[in-house]
Amino acid sequence: MLKRAPLASVLVVILLSGASAGASSWRTAEAGGATAQAYGIRVVIPGQTGAATPTVSAPPDAVQFSGGFTYGDGGIVTTGSANASVSAVAGTDATATASAEVSTVSIFGGEIIAVDVAAQAHAEARPGAATGDISGSSVTGLVALGQAVASGGSATLADWGALHTIESGTSGSAATGYRSFVTAVDIHLTADHGGLPAGTSILIGYASVAAQAAPPPTPTTPPGPNPRKGGHGKGPKVGPAPNPVGGLPPSSGPLTVTPVLHTPGGNVFPVYGPSSYTDTYGAFRGDVSGGWHHGDDIFAPLGAPVLAVASGTVFSIGWNQVGGNRLWLRDGAGNEYYYAHLSAYTPLARNGAVVNAGDVVGFVGNTGDAQGTPYHLHFEIHPVGLLGMGYDGAVNPTTYLNRWHHVQDVSFAGGIAWAPAASSAQAPKPGAVLISATDISSANGLEPGSLQRTLAPTRSQEGAVIPASASLPKHKPANGHPAAAGSH
Length: 488
Description:
Helix content is 7%, strand content 35%. The protein is mainly beta. Strands 5, 6, 7, 8, 9, 10, 11, 12, 13 and 14 form a 10-stranded antiparallel sheet that branches. Strand 15 (154-157) and strand 16 (161-173) form a beta hairpin. The longest helix has 11 residues, at 8-18. The radius of gyration is 24 Å and the shape is globular. 50% of the residues are buried.
């Protein structure tokens, strides 16, 4: 089924784009597998090479961060960041997710502009059932020739082209699996315009997925007891135990509820700056996390600031083999949030510390069992009403993340860039040390040992090791990100 069928030539382009996962990928899915593909932007010109941001495909899981994209003299097509991420897990419970997001789009010198373009696709298949969706796909701030275009809408571009948004197609069944694609913005030229010939297509934000469940294994012995294993390798939480909620049954898998959090003051998105995520809640995770993924992975560059999503109290800070550097946050309503795989902490990451929504508590990394994977934050939501279920009281964070506010500026408490937690002496070294230009300028590169003295560690009152003068500015630098020196 194809929603909002475009011009025939554009349809061919879209289907061929999805086909780069190819017939072979779908045959893999038919045998009990999963595939995913995504890219940020592609300019397809008849008889010419065109241009595109890199395409990522899974398996294995992958993420691509691209800086500003420009095509053509005079900026025929320009964008801000263009990010894409994909994940695919094969097996009896097969899942595939793909996501692409492009910011600050300008086409033909501003004739067409958009603030943000996002494409997201999800597929899952179990024996006898297969489904999926493109929820999360959206276009924000789209204006074509001076007229606003709603997400999901279309527009005629004078006498030279047409524009469509949220084009998607699906196919499959419980027996054959599920596959789908979505193109967030599709611009097709029917006449020469702006230096591009008729027949050109500009595709922004593309995601495609396919999943087919493998047949369940034939049991060779009667099934024995299957106690739930610990979650995501976090171990027990440190600090006050949550009040049990009576009458809640034990969970044997992902939950389908989306409770209102009633967070005092509201919530903010947990990662500052460019990031990418897809709905991977409930995905198969082998012998960890009780066999399923209790949250979403938010991919971002190493050292990207990790924020308190709500005002509340930080607790259970430390390190373990699976979660790596991790912490918990409890908001004023009693909801709890879990952060894993951090590269480092800020001084606010102390057991019992009170923080405000948007405060920087750590930095993105890949510690724990995420070592060797793309840098990301593993993030979970545990509503207060489900705490009595223990670790399995986690709900799907995707819907919440889709609507939470992205802060536009950050500051660092106490003038200290980072500090390993006192309780994490066995943790790996932090993945990033953030230093401001004023700190670096205090060291004379020609003077032996001056930079080492600038970064010489001291100890805070809490006993945490911290750089002596690695302070950060309390304003956003010109490039929109805190200064970072990527030593690790």
